Amino acid sequence: MGAWSFLGNGVEIDCQGNITIGSHVLISPGCFITDHNHGTLADKRIDQQSCIAADIVIGDDVWLGTRSVILPGVTIGEGAVIAAGAVVNRDVHRYTVVAGIPARRIGQRDGKK
């Protein structure tokens, strides 16, 4: 976790591989970040299957809104904004704003006030 990053109350980070969090990242209350899923093969009992991990990278200057969910294998580019309650299951480009389930692009940070 980089310098000046912030974790709000009730944030859960469930890591079995690698989760990288940049600098100046705001992780709002209730966010959930997990880098793994459970196996789902039909020929083996679910409780006997291994977890499958995929790295997560959260770039610098990112804001994760309240109760957003970040799923395995995702890279969130520098300056991105994840709206409250969004479920991110694919990469988010730099300075992009996403919202929804699954998260989709709704805007761009452009530097204008």
What are the key terms here?
globular; six-stranded mixed sheet; mainly beta; four-stranded parallel sheet; UDP N-Acetylglucosamine Acyltransferase, domain 1; 36% strand; 113 residues
Please describe what this structure looks like.
The protein has one domain (6-108): Hexapeptide repeat proteins (UDP N-Acetylglucosamine Acyltransferase, domain 1, 3 Solenoid). Helix content is 0%, strand content 36%. The protein contains no helices and 15 strands. It has strands spanning 6-7, 12-14, 19-21, 26-27, 32-34, 36-38, 51-53, 56-58, 63-64, 69-70, 75-76, 81-82, 87-88, 96-99, 104-108. A hairpin with a 4-residue loop joins β14 (96-99) and β15 (104-108).
Secondary structure blueprint with pairings:
Blueprint: E1 6-7, E2 12-14, E3 19-21, E4 26-27, E5 32-34, E6 36-38, E7 51-53, E8 56-58, E9 63-64, E10 69-70, E11 75-76, E12 81-82, E13 87-88, E14 96-99, E15 104-108
Parallel strand pairs: 1-4, 2-5, 3-8, 4-9, 5-10, 8-11, 9-12, 10-13, 12-14
Antiparallel strand pairs: 6-7, 14-15
Strand order of the largest sheet: 1-4-9-12-14-15
* DSSP E strands, number: 15
Low-confidence parts: none
Name the structural class.
Answer: mainly beta
Short note summarizing the structure:
This protein is mainly beta and 113 residues long. Helices cover 0% and strands 36% of the residues.
